[in-house]
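Example 4.3 (complexes with small molecules)
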Amino acid sequence: MTPGVRPLIAGNWKMHGTLRDAAALAEAVRAGAPAVVERADLLLCPPFVHLHVVAASMAWKPVALGAQDCAAQEKGAHTGDVSAPMLADAGCGYVILGHSERRADHGETDALVRAKAAAAIAAGLVPVICVGESEAQRDAGQAEDVVAAQVAGSLPEGFAAAKGVVAYEPVWAIGTGRTPTEADIAAMHARLRREVSAGQGDATTRLLYGGSVKPGNAAAILALPNVDGALVGGASLVAADFLAIAAAVAAG
Ligand code: PGA
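Answer. The structure with 2-phosphoglycolic acid bound is encoded below.
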């Protein structure tokens, strides 16, 4: 944790479930939230078409709502895309951008992620920008430099003022049950702090770790310096697991 920074536990639901599942999961998180919101901010990021049912469940606002992507453009002839102002209008406060699955599946570059993040900020959303190295890059000893370059390329002007968030997610740790060692996470987050502070962020920018965060490893990861929360995929689909991860934030 970074002293004075309020932790954020974010659930990335990816492309899972039905409307009914989304409503039930949101309701279960909402019901358990009072026990953990003293310790951390909670954020749920369902698929676009499920935003409205989660927004309805979150109407009393202990838990924030976010999307998993947005367009770089504000409006116009962009079939299939969803703009940042539309997300804000739908009740979102946050948007995940540059997730490695989007970088891989849709060829998203740092420049595109930066443009999307600028659009998000202009619409009043908080961007959660994901960075992280591949396994080959880590094996080649390039992990920190890859992440530093992604930070330099992906964070737009105004990022610090918008309270933007950076999530370090090693690609090889996502959905695999594997995580870096605590020493490796701490080393990366120390570098991330330097790069973010030297760039568009500042010393209070929340730096999340993501990649196979589970109830069993959350306390150790969340206790590391410069780890200000978690971006949770698989475990966020089980309300009890997501809430247990939030409960693993050390009492401040
Ligand atoms: P995971 O996903 O927790 O299932 O590894 C994390 C993410 O992709 O954000």
